[in-house]
Amino acid sequence: MPASTVVLARPSADGAFEIFMNRRPEQMDTYAGVYVFPGGRVESTDWSSSMLALVRGITPIDAQKKLGSAAVPEACLGYWVAAVRELFEEAGIHFFQQQDSELTAVTARVLSARLAHKRAELQQGKFDLPTLMADERLCCDVGRLSYFFHRITPEHYPVRFDTRFYLAALPEGQTPLHSSEEVSESVWVSPKTALERAQGGNFPMMPPTIAVLRTLAEHGSWNSLRDAFQLR
């Protein structure tokens, strides 16, 4: 099944960077207790006409080219939308903008506070993302996400995902949730430290996650990471 994952990054005090990881609850049916990046399956509403009319930052054709996919362009752009939606549902971080005006520091805080009350309801399926966006007169800035990785779960796993990985900088003024409905705890950690902990046996991760961390660990500074992936 198609899925999207977001690696959220922020600069650290020493000029390097940290990435945001979630630990899945032990009672989950899949990948219980492992550390992952926020993400989940692509839903049909992620590439519906009502949703895509509210997307900014990349076109369906460009999305198809970036993914190198044979899927229809609209479905390709749905991967970006799913990444944004899953990040919001699991961590409370959003890449939304007002449709008719620029967000100021004050209006951004007001919007974030208002969205915090609606996040859990969205995650619970009480309404979908297009409905939330239309009601709040918002658009979705998927241009903040940089696509960089693709993995398909091997055949011997009972649940298989065709996952696209994205990298994004933590938006200014936003703080991710420490836990939520599908997250037992969250942590900011450098890729090197996460890999060292995994090697020590106390930081369980799936192979694709380890592969992503190894790729990111090649960048020794925030500036290097930002420039390589054109983060903003």
Summary tags:
232 residues; alpha+beta; Nucleoside Triphosphate Pyrophosphohydrolase; 7-stranded mixed beta sheet; 3-stranded mixed beta sheet; 22% strand
What portion of residues is helical? 25-40%
Task: Give the termini distance in whole angstroms.
Answer: 30 Å
SSE pattern: EEEEHEHHEHHEEEEHHH
Strands, count: 10
Largest sheet: 7 strands, mixed
Structure, explained:
The structure is a single chain. With 232 residues, the chain is α+β, with helices and mostly antiparallel strands. The protein has a single domain, classed as Alpha-Beta Complex (Nucleoside Triphosphate Pyrophosphohydrolase), CATH 3.90.79. 37% of the residues lie in helices and 22% in strands. It is built from 8 helices and 10 strands. The strands form 2 sheets. Strands 1, 2, 3, 4, 8, 9 and 10 form a 7-stranded mixed sheet that branches. The chain has a 3-stranded mixed sheet with strand order 5-7-6. Helix 6 (191-199) packs across helix 7 (207-217). The chain starts with a strand and ends with a helix.
